[in-house]
């Protein structure tokens, strides 16, 4: 059991990964170049009303053409690791078949540029940009998509595995399944609760199959999933609120952690989800694949969910402005209430203690696995002021508070080995379009000029120091 003590002075080990993260669709642009096929997000962006302001990622921040400049920015920050994702439809335009070498060549060039700058590449295989052709055949609710994903993983690993050792299979399967197929606020925008559960299982199955396929090719890669975890608390100590917390913790955290790390779904959830026929898509032998051993676990942490099961007492619904359909399949009655803490520009409460709870729980309740924070950060409506500076003190405070928690976790013996802030630079924030900025680096979208924010300088200092000042 983790003992949580006050911070020691320098707990971050020498080989701690100090990183930043992005994803292909959010930064690359060049959506019709070099044979890239369409993804579900291209289609979603073309759907009227789906993305705020009608924004699209056709150009995004033009990283496809500016990757050299962007790697130079990373080097300037002193990052020793960079997490990015591969665009599946760049490599397999229709989701199956041989790799398009032009797609792979882009990632080879990017990886070589990173290695030359002394920055370790960390690849995410699936960060939500499913080839549209696979969605046309049913998407993630279709079991075959998991098999196609493992094939893609093997193609990518076969081509890049000689120079990339750290691989994440799926990013935030909760979002991909429930925002994509239940609430419909993300691509492909379907509102089919039962299909969302099938999607969740097939994303996990795809993860397991991908790990097996990659390990069959060569040894040496370190592979694992990246999940979005939240601290969850009941609004009050009442039976209704405690039940709400059990349900949301179940759907958000335990569903994925139990499956991935213990090879089973939690019994209480199976019971809650029985009316949707969930168990029907889980075949004999699946859970052994889903529960394949991982070399690492990526944790994306942003905030806490405080929930109530009592009807009508919502003080603040934190679910999205983009859909009135709940992503919480079978627990649609649950209300998300604020605790009255400061919120970021996304309306998400700043709750660094929640990160400690998440880490301590992983350490206490699950088999040991090296942990990495693969995303943590804050979105605001940053503005470039007259003297060309962005004074994002709130972001600095957010990052500082969460890194202090990381220090405490390491000090308590929790095997936390790295931290990737979301995000390296401002980018396409999904349904929010370009209206929310998460970057350490500001992007002037009209000119694509990159301008490091105050937080970028703060992060660079932190990395140089190897930690935070007392
Ligand atoms: C994550 N939610 O997305 C993603 O991994 C990133 O691509 C994204 O830019 C970042 O966090 C900031 O949003 C999420 O509604 C999107 O609960 C939505 C939710 C959670 C995470």
TrEMBL record:
The organism's place on the tree of life at top rank: Bacteria
One annotated GO molecular function: beta-glucosidase activity
A single GO cellular-component term on record: cytosol
Location of the active site: 172 (proton donor), 375 (nucleophile)
Residues involved in substrate binding: 26, 127, 171, 302, 422, 429-430
Catalytic reaction annotation: Hydrolysis of terminal, non-reducing beta-D-glucosyl residues with release of beta-D-glucose
Protein keywords: Carbohydrate metabolism, Cellulose degradation, Glycosidase, Hydrolase, Polysaccharide degradation
Gene3D superfamilies: Glycosidases (3.20.20.80)
Swiss-Prot/TrEMBL GO biological process terms: cellulose catabolic process
Coiled coil: none
The UniProt record lists the keyword Hydrolase: yes
Enzyme Commission number(s) from the entry: 3.2.1.21
Record bears the keyword Hydrolase: yes
Family per record: Belongs to the glycosyl hydrolase 1 family.
NCBIfam families: BGL
Name of the featured protein: Beta-glucosidase
Organism of origin: Thermomonospora amylolytica
């Amino acid at each position: 059991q983790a003992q949580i003590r006050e911070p020691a002075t320098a707990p971050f080990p020498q080989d701690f990964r100090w990183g930043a993260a992005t994803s292909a669709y959010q930064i690359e642009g060049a959506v019709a170049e070099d044979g890239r096929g369409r993804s579900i997000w291209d289609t979603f962006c073309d759907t009227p009303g789906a993305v705020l302001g009608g924004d699209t990622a056709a150009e995004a921040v033009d990283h496809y053409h500016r990757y050299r400049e962007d790697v130079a920015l990373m080097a300037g920050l002193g990052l020793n690791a960079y997490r990015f994702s591969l665009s599946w439809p760049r490599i397999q335009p229709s989701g199956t078949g041989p790799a398009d070498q032009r797609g792979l060549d882009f990632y080879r060039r990017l990886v070589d540029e990173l290695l030359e700058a002394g920055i370790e590449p960390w690849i995410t295989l699936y960060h939500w940009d499913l080839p549209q052709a696979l969605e046309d055949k049913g998407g993630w609710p279709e079991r075959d998509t998991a098999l196609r994903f493992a094939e893609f993983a093997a193609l990518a690993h076969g081509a890049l595995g000689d120079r990339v050792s750290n691989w994440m299979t799926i990013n935030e399967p909760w979002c991909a399944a429930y925002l994509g197929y239940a609430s419909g606020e993300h691509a492909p925008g379907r509102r089919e609760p039962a299909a969302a559960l099938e999607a969740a299982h097939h994303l996990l199955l795809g993860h397991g199959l991908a790990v097996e396929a990659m390990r069959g090719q060569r040894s040496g890669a370190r592979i694992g999933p990246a999940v979005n975890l939240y601290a969850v608390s009941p609004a009050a100590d009442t039976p209704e609120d405690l039940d709400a917390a059990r349900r949301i913790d179940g759907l958000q955290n335990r569903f994925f952690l139990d499956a991935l790390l213990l090879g089973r779904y939690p019994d209480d959830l199976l019971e809650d989800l029985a009316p949707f026929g969930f168990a029907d898509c889980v075949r004999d032998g699946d859970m052994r694949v889903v529960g394949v051993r991982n070399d690492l676990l990526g944790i994306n942490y942003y905030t806490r969910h405080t929930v109530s099961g009592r009807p009508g007492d919502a003080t603040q619904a934190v679910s999205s402005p983009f859909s009135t359909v709940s992503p919480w399949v079978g627990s649609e009655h649950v209300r998300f209430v604020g605790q009255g803490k400061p919120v970021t520009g996304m309306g998400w409460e700043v709750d660094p203690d929640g990160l400690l709870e998440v880490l301590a729980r992983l350490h206490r309740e699950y088999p040991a696995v090296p942990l990495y924070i693969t995303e943590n950060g804050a979105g605001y409506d940053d503005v470039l002021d007259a003297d060309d500076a962005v004074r994002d003190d709130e972001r600095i405070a957010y990052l500082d508070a969460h890194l202090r928690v990381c220090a405490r976790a390491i000090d308590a013996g929790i095997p936390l080995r790295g931290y990737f802030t979301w995000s390296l630079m401002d980018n396409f924030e999904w349904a929010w379009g370009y209206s929310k900025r998460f970057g350490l680096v500001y992007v002037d979208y009209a000119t694509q000029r990159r301008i490091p924010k105050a937080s970028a300088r703060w992060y660079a200092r932190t990395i140089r120091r190897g930690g935070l000042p007392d």
